[in-house]
Amino acid sequence: MTSDEHLIPVLDGLDALAREYGNRFLLEPAPDHQLPQHGMRSADAMRLLGEELVLDGIPMRNLATFVTTWMEPEAQRIIAENLHRNYIDHAEYPQTAVIEQRCIRMLANLYHAPGETTGTRTQGSSEAIMLGALSLKWKWRARREAAGKDTARPNLVFGGDVHVVWEKFCRYFDVEPRIIPLQPDKYTIGPEDVEPYVDENTIGVGAVLGTTFTGHADDIVGINDLLVRLKEERGLDVPIHVDAASGGFVWPFLYPHTEWDFRLPQVRSINVSGHKFGLVYPGIGWLLFRSPEDLPDDLVFYENYLGKRDATFTLNFSTGSSMVLAQYYNFVRFGHDGYRYIMQTMQANARQLAQRIGAIGDFRIIGSEKDEQLPLVAFQLDGDHNFDEFDVASQLAAERGWMVPAYTLPPNADHIKIMRALVKLTLGHTMVETLADDIAAACKVLAEKGGLHPHDRQRVKTGTGY
Ligand SMILES: *Cc1c(COP(=O)(O)O)cnc(C)c1O
Questions:
Q1: Which of 173, 202, 443, 449 is 20 to 30 A from 229 (CA-CA)?
Q2: How far is the CA of 297 from the centre of ligand 1 (A)?
Q3: Considering the entire predicted model, what is its pTM?
C-alpha cells in the first residue's frame, strides 16, 4: 500500500462507505429519464427497487382486486423455475403445450361442453373476450354472406354492467356497441332488457357471470330462452358469449345446478380469468368454444416456425409458460373438492363480513344471502350522513392501509355510490372481524369530523380494481 492511497478524497470516502453500508442512491436520485451510462452492482439495483416498492400497497390488504394475491410456496416454486420458458415455442416446449390442452379440456368439461371443443390460453379475460367477440363477428359475417345480405353494420349487445374491454373491442374492431343502461335499482340485465336491442346485425350478446360492480350475474338462462325464441320465430341465430372472468371458477363450485354455460344452447363461447378465482398470479386467462365449429378457421394462423407447423389463435405471441403450469398445478392440487372448499370458505367469510358491516348501522348491503354472488361484500351508506363512501374508503386506507374501493355505478345508475370488499382466501375470520371493526371506527371518526377535508382525501383508489 502506498502512502497516497491514504489520501482518499472526501467524496470517494463517502462512496466507499455507501458501498459498504448502503447504496449510492441514498444520496442520489434514482435514474429516471435516460438509460444510465454505467450500471451498478446487482445488490444496489435490487435495493433501489426494493426500497421504492414499499410505497405500493400491500397486495394482501388489497380488497379491491379480483386478481390472486397469494399462492402456495410449491406453486411459487413452479412459477420461479419456469420463468425462462416461452409458452409460444410449442416445438421446443411440447410438454407445456400438452399441459395447456389438458387445462382446456378440464375447463370445457367443467362448463358442460357437449362434445369435442377447442379453446386457448390467453393473457387474461381481456384477450379472451377480444378473440371470442372476433369469432362472433366472423361467424355473423359468414352467415350474412351466405344469405347474400349486407355485412356493413355489425352490432354487439351487452349491459352497462360489463367490463370496459367490451367497449374496447367494439372500438378496436369496428362494431357498434349497443349498451343496455342499468336502472337505479337493477344492476344486471335480463331478456326484457336485451330484446329491443337485438336485430339481424347483432353478432352476439355478451352476458356477465359475476359483475365487477356487485358480483351478481346477468339472467343468462332468460337471455338464452329469448334468443332461442327469436331463432324459432324470426330465424335470427344470435349467439351468447359469457364473460365468466370471475364467475367461471365460482359458480361451478358454489352453484353447480345453475345453468349459465354450454348447457344452454345459445352459449357458444366462454372466457374465464385463471388469475382471478382460478387462483393463479396475474397473466392467465382462458377462452373456450362450445365446439370447434364456433372458432372460424380464418382466425387461426398456421405457420411454419422453427421447423414445425403450428396453429395459433392469439393476439399476443411470446409470454411465459409459468402461469399455464401454475394453473395446472392448482387443478391437480385442489381438484374439484378443493376448489369447492376454497369457494365455500370465501363465501362464509364474505357473509360474516356482510353481517358485521350490516350491524354497524350505517350501511346497507347490496344483495342478500339468497342471491348467487361472487365472494365479496358490496355496500353503501344508508340514511343521512355527513360523509360519503369515498370518505370511508380514504379513512380506511389512511388509518389501516385497507384498500376498499368506493365508486359510482355505470349509467343510468351513475348517481349510486358503492363500496366493495373482495373476500379472498387470505381474509380469514379474524381479519374479517378486524376489517369490520376498522370500518365502524372509520365511520365514527368521520361522523365526528363531518367528512374529510378535501386536502385529506387522498383518493388513491379511483378505479374499482379488477
Ligand atoms: C376482470 C374482468 C375482465 C378483464 O379480465 P382480465 O383477466 O383482467 O383481462 C373482464 N370481464 C370481467 C367481468 C372481469 O371481472
A1: 173
A2: 26
A3: 0.94
Distance 15 CA to ligand 1 centre (A): 48
- Was domain 77-330 assigned CATH 3.50.50.60? no
Q: What is the pLDDT of residue 118?
A: 95
Which residue minimizes the CA distance to atom 11 of ligand 1? 163
Q: For the segment 354-395, what is each residue's pLDDT rounded down to a tens digit?
A: 999 999 999 999 999 999 999 999 999 999 999 999 999 999
Atom of ligand 1 nearest to the CA of 244: 13
Pick one of 2.70.70.10, 3.20.20.70, 3.90.1150.160, 3.40.190.10 as the CATH number of 344-461.
3.90.1150.160
Which ligand 1 atom is the nearest neighbour of the CA of 124? Answer: 7
Q: Which residues line ligand 1 (CB under 6 A)?
A: 66, 124-126, 163, 165, 208, 212, 243, 245-246, 273, 285, 466
As a three-state string, the secondary structure of the chain is CCHHHHCCCHHHHHHHHHHHHCCHHHCCCCCCCCCCCCCCCHHHHHHHHHHHHCCCCCHHHECCCCCCCCCCHHHHHHHHHCCCCECCCCCCCHHHHHHHHHHHHHHHHHCCCCCCCEEEEECCHHHHHHHHHHHHHHHHHHHHHHCCCCCCCCEEEEECCCCCHHHHHHHHCCCEEEEECCECCECCCCHHHHHHHCCCCEEEEEEEECCCCCCCECCHHHHHHHHHHHHHHHCCCCCEEEECCCHHHCHHHHCCCCCCCCCCCCEEEEEEECCCCCCCCCCCEEEEECCHHHCCHHHCEEEEECCEEEEECCCCCCCECHHHHHHHHHHHHHHHHHHHHHHHHHHHHHHHHHHHHHHHCCEEECCCCCCCCCCEEEEEECCCCCCCHHHHHHHHHHHHCCECCEEECCCCCCCCEEEEEECCCCCCHHHHHHHHHHHHHHHHHHHHHCCCCHHHCCCCCCCCCC
